[in-house]
Amino acid sequence: MKKENSLLPISIIILGGCLILSAWVVSNGLKSQEHLEKSLNTTTQTKALMTSDEAAQYMGISLEDFDYLIKSQAEFKSGISNTICLINNGLRELPA
Prior knowledge:
Radius of gyration: 32 Å
Helix content: over 70%
Number of helices: 3
Shape: rod-shaped
Mean pLDDT: 77
Structural class: mainly alpha
Largest sheet: 2 strands, antiparallel
Oligomer: single chain
Order of helices and strands: HHHEE
Strand content: 5-15%
Number of strands: 2
Low-confidence stretches: none
């Protein structure tokens, strides 16, 4: 038997082993990816909204100004509010 003919079965066996190994690596990678996505979704869902303190700090205003802003927005949506604007980090009422 020629040397080339004896290498063919060996290369087919090695190729089959590589295919099995790569399938195993990919399946483990997909399992860990699913676990990562589940943990990220849980973290995102538990911390989806800011508290009033966090929102006020994010906006750079005091908690009292933030509460006033929320109250004025609620009144504005109901149609009974004066015009409100934010001037120099303080809320001011402007005449209607």
